[in-house]
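Researcher: Next sequence.
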Amino acid sequence: MLKILGLSCASCYTLKGEARHVLSNDEVNPLVQDPANATNACRALTSQWEADHLWATFSSQVYKDRADASLKGYRTMPLAGFWATAPFIHNQSIGHYAEATASPEERADAYEVAMRELPSPFRVPKINILPVSAGPFPVGTPLAFVFSRDPETNALLCDDIVENRGHYYGSELPEEDKEALISWLKRQ
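Model: Next structure:
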């Protein structure tokens, strides 16, 4: 199993040094590092978490410093305890939610669904849309067109509307290796 993880995931989920305890390099990865595997960019491109913006109180100084230096991207999330965190991807678009009151069995079920979808290159594109009209935006407008705007200029910061795109690492693995990875991560 470690060989599968090492070959497919080692660039972000390390098995060496202190990081092996959480299986993360804890780095912010640039959005266009690997275009074929690029995940939805909108959450990383928002300005709402930057200094003097709406949600600035809830972001760290490290985040604000990275934004000031134009170092936007996604931090590699730890794989330790990964089974309890479905749905996956940074915008939680792969899999389904397990309610806060979910039992361990329900969380495990949510994990299984998400982990079977994650290494698939054949995901049905998920585009979140407005269910009702909101100001100048009609019903059916992709949410990225509403929430990915600069609050001062109203300029669109991101037009990436497919929420569950990217992170296809492992999709080329044989089925038995995918099953071994799913089982191994469940034990972490």
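Model: DSSP finds six helices and two strands in the chain. The longest helix spans residues 104-117.
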